[in-house]
Amino acid sequence: MKFPRRGLYAITQTEDKSTATVLSEVEAVLQGGAKVLQYRDKQGGDAMLLGSQLLVLCRRYQVPLIINDDPQLALNLGADGVHLGKDDQDIELVRKLLGPNAIIGVSCYNSISRARQMQAKGADYVAFGRFFPSGSKPLASPAQLETLALARQVITVPIVAIGGILPENGGQLLAAGADLLAVIGGLFDQSPHNAVLAYQALFMQS
User: Fold this and answer.
1) What range does the domain containing 188 cover?
2) Catalytic residue numbers?
């Protein structure tokens, strides 16, 4: 499955939630039109069990499932790809593990040079952020809107913006150059069904 050029990139929120709740919320955002799902779980639950259930949902809605930080889990699940941070495995080693068709995304924070380097090494998308205060990554270094504008000039793979993105502020990120908006709390801190519609409106307006 290919990575989309544009749209809402949903990231799971698993903290203090039952498996049934996570699956119900994820299905609501997939029904609402999210284009990508990333499985992110910092609590160390049964990743194979929940991951396999998420994969079933993603296949039903024909949306790629990306695994955060864990190439081996992505391989074991048969997921569509993995998202790597600066402290994760080298992208070239991950490509050898997962194969030529896997989606590999890379966090680039506020660095155009890192994005260019990762693109040259075969990244399928690059992610910048955080752009706004974030509950999931409160200590993450901030990124600037100007970075998206610069990335638009030199990056040819899809550009993802992440970090504290709400329907009220997401439009400026799209206007600056982002192709996809990656969201956790903005979707799952409230009714995911209603939230996803608000984000979808941003893409229709831009």
Assistant:
1) 7-205
2) 40, 107, 137
Tell me if residue 30 falls in helix, strand or coil. Answer: helix
pTM of the model: 0.96
Q: Give pLDDT, residue 139.
A: 67
Q: By C-alpha distance, which of 25, 158, 177 is closest to 103?
A: 158
The three-point CA angle 4-21-184 to 5° equals 40
**Range 46-53, long-range pairs (CB < 8 A, 24+ positions):** 47/73, 48/73, 48/76, 48/77, 49/19, 50/14, 50/19, 50/22, 50/23, 51/77, 51/79, 52/77, 53/19, 53/23
* CA 105 to chain CA centroid, nearest Å: 8
> What digits encode the pLDDT tens for the residues 31-81?
999 999 999 987 666 899 999 999 999 999 999 999 999 999 999 999 999
User: Residue 205 corresponds to which tokens in the numbers above?
Assistant: 């307006």
**Within a domain: residue 2?**
no
CATH number for the domain that contains residue 64: 3.20.20.70
The Cα 160–Cα 163 span in angstroms is 10
CA distance 93 to 96: 5
